[in-house]
Description:
five-stranded mixed β-sheet; single chain; seven-stranded mixed β-sheet; alpha/beta; about 40% helix; globular; binds ligand P1T
Amino acid sequence: MVAFSTRAIHNGEEPDFREGASGDVAVPIHLATTFARLKAGAPTAGYEYTRSLNPTRKALEEKLAALEGAKYGLAFSSGLAAASTLIISLLKTGDNVIGFDDLYGGTRRLLSNVFVNFGISTTYVDATVASNIGKAITPQSKLIWIETPTNPLLKIADIRAIAKIAKEHGLILVVDNTFLSPYFQKPLDLGADIVVYSTTKYIGGHSDVLGGSIILNNDDYYQKIAYNQNAVGAVASPFDSYLTIRGAKTLAVRMEQHQKNAFALAEFLQNSPKVKRVLYPGLKDHPGHDIAASQSTGFGGVLSFELEGTLDDAEALLSKLKLFSTAESLGGVESLIEIPAIMTHASVPKEVREQNGISDTLIRVSVGIEDTADLIDDFRQALN
Ligand code: P1T
């Protein structure tokens, strides 16, 4: 198998040299919603209707699977569409999910406020200690859902240890790998059953396309999820598929620069008297550093920190920054900054946020790929 950056550019997009084809080096955007056939019973090259199969989405799905070194990739209209399709495909009424207590607010909202209405319950545990998962398992438990690092506290879970517990109890382990992307971490190789992404983030990489994906090797789970991808219809559009493909080609070089800048900013913030604590798994004093270093080849481009003071001080800092736009989301080339308590995690009940450590002065930064010194200078002037 060729290396990651080579797969990112070539897989899913081999030029088509068949009679009449033009040999495009970039996959065309196939906008057709339906595909004509010469004979009613014989779909042309397997294409019938775009919800079921579309050539541009197929190219993206092949590329995403290749990046993970996996058998199957499926592309959805958003990360949460991928999560929803996964849950309805593999769980039923009465089943229980064991979730990391620091999941993205929207994932938690989906589990706690939506699927609960269909009789699927979720138990949240601090998965930084793998045995907490074992303790929470009941006969109803079917699936474990973790992120690592988590959003927004950058907590680290030991994927290998949790995969072992999942196997022992016959549970499905799902890892949301959005924060590191397949460039830095490959959960399937560590024993996870399914990887999910918000491709809106690093894989798309330019804050201009919403998407999600599910990557896996298991034939049975793939058949079920692929069936429901078509049945439910939350698929990635041809144009969104194209943009995500375009973004994915530069994932390797972008991730290196995101990480370089995140390290520099984390170290700068650690030395500021106005900062209470910095959460970045790359820092040696991060409680999950050793596990992170043992299961991933990098620490990513997102960090959080707690500012001394109040919510007003946090808002004032954000308004003084010139290169960091105050906005939700992460993983784009441009630096973004946000306050989880009033933005991305506002849907998490206040008492749960506080119990888990999402204070009003916790600030999350998606460090972009701008010039390192410019980003540090901007923070220096804003903190002053
Ligand atoms: O936004 P969407 O593409 O549906 O993906 C949801 C999602 C899933 N998993 C993780 C780890 C995420 O961070 C997200 C989306 N997160 C944000 C929008 C955010 O600002 O944190």
